[in-house]
Amino acid sequence: MRCLIDIGRFHKYKTGRLNDPNYRENQFMIYRLTEISFNKAEALMRKNGSVTTQEAVDLINASKKRAFAAADWEKIRYTTATLTMDEFLAEKRREFVFEGKRRTDIIRFGRFNNGSWWDHQRTMDPNREIYPIPSTQLANNPNLKQNPGYDQ
Fold it and tell me: What domains, with CATH codes, occur in the chain?
């Protein structure tokens, strides 16, 4: 029965046997070295006025190269001309699929409220960029006020 259920499920970190060195049965990766490289690359680009630096390109290419055959690499590698902020965000989406980072990224890149990431039809309430303060916290601290857009 398990194999029937798992056929359509996405497995970024597949389960396996305990003696398998890649066994990840109950672990969810919070941070990976690749994320640190992406964070540094983004910081370098933003520091440079959203223009790509060679160091940023090298960081992203080092991560991307592991997924491609040597024969294809020259065609798909990034250069300072091809790694734009938009392409960086797209590459980050591909690299970190199902790792719970997309929402934060699109808010940081100013794309959360344009609807392009969700259903291409509607815009989101700008108040939804932040979460509501839990009612228990509001009850415990009368100095707190609920974030805009959430009823108390």
Answer: 33-128 (1.25.40.900)
